[in-house]
Amino acid sequence: MRRKKRKRRIKKRRSGNHTWRPQWLYIYWNFPFLWIIKIGITGRSVNTRRKEVDRSAPGWDFPIFAIYLYGAYYCEQIIHQACTLLKVGFWGSGRTERFHILALIPAVFIALIWFVIYWAGVIAAGLIFYYIISKLY
Q: Which pLDDT score, from 0 to 100, does residue 17 have?
């Protein structure tokens, strides 16, 4: 009796929520609803995500801030918690990620702090490595 070959399943790299993989954290500004911004993340390009949002939500969204972060999902969750009082009822894709324009200030601040803290650790590790190597020679 001949045995059937099993198809080997390839593990996909996780790039969605609850991951530390790098993703884009973006902020869109909506026209004609100028008092509304959208704060979200995407593993693809910021413009690809913008097109998806534009198809399902009223108005046009324009990217006003985007940064490539490690752990962008967790940074986004912190931003959403910090801006809870500025949440705005909206509809379409990402309707729970819509905030009043005033949320722009803490969102950009938190994202930049997150970016600096991550890269400060990487730079510190590099400097320590350089120091150790320079002492050997």
A: 72
Average pLDDT along the chain, 137 residues, taken 10 residues at a time: 65 65 92 93 90 89 93 94 93 86 96 91 90 88
Report the candidate in 68, 66, 60 with the shortest Cα–Cα distance to residue 39: 66
Backbone angles phi, psi at 44, to 5 degrees: -100, -160
With beta carbons less than 8 A apart as the criterion, state whether 97 and 52 touch.
no
DSSP states of 71-130 as a string?
THHHHHHHHHHHTGGGB----STTGGGEEEGGGHHHHHHHHHHHHHHHHHHHHHHHHHHH
Distance (Å, whole) CA 126 – CA 133: 11
φ, ψ for residue 61, nearest 5 deg: -100, 135
| This prediction's pTM | 0.77
Contacts of 71 (CB under 8 A, 6+ apart): 20, 114, 118
Nearest CA-CA partner of 72 in 120, 115, 37: 115
